[in-house]
Amino acid sequence: MKLHCEVEVISRHLPALGLRNRGKGVRAVLSLCQQTSRSQPSARAFLLISTLKDKRGTRYELWENIEQFFTKFVDEGKATVRLKEPPVDICLSKANSSSLKGFLSAVRLAHRGCKVDIPVSTLTPVKTSEFENFKTKMVITSKKDYPLSKNFPYSLEHLQTSYCGLVRVDMRMLCLKNLRKLDLSHNHIKKLPATIGDLIHLQELNLNDNHLESFSVALCQSTLQKSLRTLDLSKNKIKALPVQFCQLQELTNLKLDDNELIQFPCKIGQLINLRFLSAARNKLPFLPSEFRNLSLEYLDLFGNTFEQPKVLPVTKLQAPLTLLESSARTILYNRIPYGSHIIPFHLCQDLDTAKTCVCGRFCLNSFIQGTTTMNLHSVAHTVVLVDNMGGTEAPIVSYFCSLGCYVNSSDMLK
Ligand SMILES: [Zn+2]
Fold first, then answer.
1. What is the arithmetic mean of pLDDT over 202-207?
2. Which of 80, 225, 317, 346 makes the best surface tag, with the fewest CB within 10 Å?
3. How far is the CA of 357 from the centre of ligand 1 (A)?
4. Distance 266 CA to ligand 1 centre (A)
5. Using CA atoms in the order 232, 236, 238, 241, what is the torsion angle rounded to 10 degrees?
6. Ligand 1 mean position to 288 CA, how many Å?
7. 3-state SS string over the chain?
8. Cα(312) to centroid of ligand 1, in Å?
9. Where do the PIF1/LRR1 pleckstrin homology domain residues begin and end (predicted)?
10. In angstroms, rounded to a whole number, what is the distance separating the alpha carbons of residues 74 and 106?
């Protein structure tokens, strides 16, 4: 029985000697071996750790020799086996979690002296070819190279499968827990499974040139919130992104070119880490008021269907304010937590998409809406011209929660 993973063997004497471990594992093949001798007819089980430098490997006896197992992060492919003699901690990482679980239970049996009911390996040096399982990068750019019968190496950190005619995301990719970069560009993918959100290390996702029509709320609320930095959704058929999209707070690079976007998510200003934004050749008539809060290095909005700002504002002021409006304003102004477990779902949606007045307060249904133009240089260092006329101005919506706010800021609208 073998396990491919990264291993670091740490002596527990090191801290006493004032030394520290390197904190970095090396690629290794772990084998569970048995050796019988004449004096001891019952098989003794060993753990053999072989590395590329040391293919014969180092042996560790297992029978009644394990002090403790540390398995809190076994689902992330990590575990530690603490041996009694020699006093070392064997730290395993980057393993396939299900193989790791199987291997650890076999090690546990060997420690108790039970017979291990699985084929154990013999004490022979590990072949160099076995280390090829540690591939971290794989690039496939044609249908004929796409693996149909073989699995992807579990250790992959960067996987590209482009021009493979994929109509959906291959479930085998979603088991690659070490994946940091996934490039599925130039395929025919229509929908993304929510389980992409289980790839906890995923930093870069490229879906350029597919048939996507949406980006789901479930994905916006997955672990991608903590990991995803670069997202390329260009050349798809996306009309709108959900308001929850702005919870992907680690995003620094977002490409939305060549879609059918008719609006940006209204809370786009919450993407505080965003530096590169391109949404060229969409159908944006104007920008949401929160767009002003962005702080970008690069912005490309070329070829959108921006409208001329309207002369007259749209007035939807209520007098007096409805009970719904006043309570919504109070909840948002005082940042009172809400959720669908307390109030009806449609009210949560209303609160999520409430408009922000120039005064910083919020409004739901009672407001004055005006359009003005903004120079895009106020939110980005480098701006690609908006049109062929050489302009860097685009229309932006502004909301006013009261007549007072409107009058005070009406200079803005001139
Ligand atoms: Zn106001």
1. 96
2. 346
3. 5
4. 17
5. -10
6. 16
7. CEEEEEEEEEECCCHHHCCCCCCCCEEEEEEEEEECCCCCCCCEEEEEEEECCCCCCEEEECCCCEEEEECCCHHHCCEEEEECCCCEEEEEECCCHHHHHHHHHHHHHHHHCCCCCCCCECCCCCCHHHHHHHCCEEEECCHHHCCCCCCCCCCCCEEEECCCCCCCCCHHHHHCCCCCEEECCCCCCCCCCHHHHHCCCCCEEECCCCCCCCCCHHHHCCCHHHHCCEEECCCCCCCCCCHHHHHCCCCCEEECCCCCCCCCCCCHHHCCCCCEEECCCCCCCCECHHHHHCCEEEEECCCCCCCCCCCCCEECCCCCCCHHHHHHHHHHHCCCCCCCCCCCHHHHHHHHCCEEECCCCEECCCCEEEEEEEEHHHCEEEEECCCCCCCCEEEEEEEECCHHHHHHHHHHHC
8. 18
9. 1-120
10. 15
pLDDT tens profile 61-104:
988 899 999 999 998 889 999 999 899 999 998 888 888 999 99
CA atoms within 13 A on the CB side of 299: 22
Q: Which amino acid is at 127?
A: K
Q: What are phi and psi of 91, to 5 degrees?
A: -95, 120
| Domains of the chain, CATH where assigned | 1-9+79-120 (no CATH), 137-283 (3.80.10.10), 314-413 (no CATH)
pLDDT(411) > 70 = no
Q: Tell how far the Cα of 94 is from the centroid of ligand 1, in angstroms.
A: 53
Q: Which pLDDT belongs to residue 12?
A: 85
Query: Do 224 and 197 meet the contact criterion of CB atoms below 8 Å apart?
Result: yes
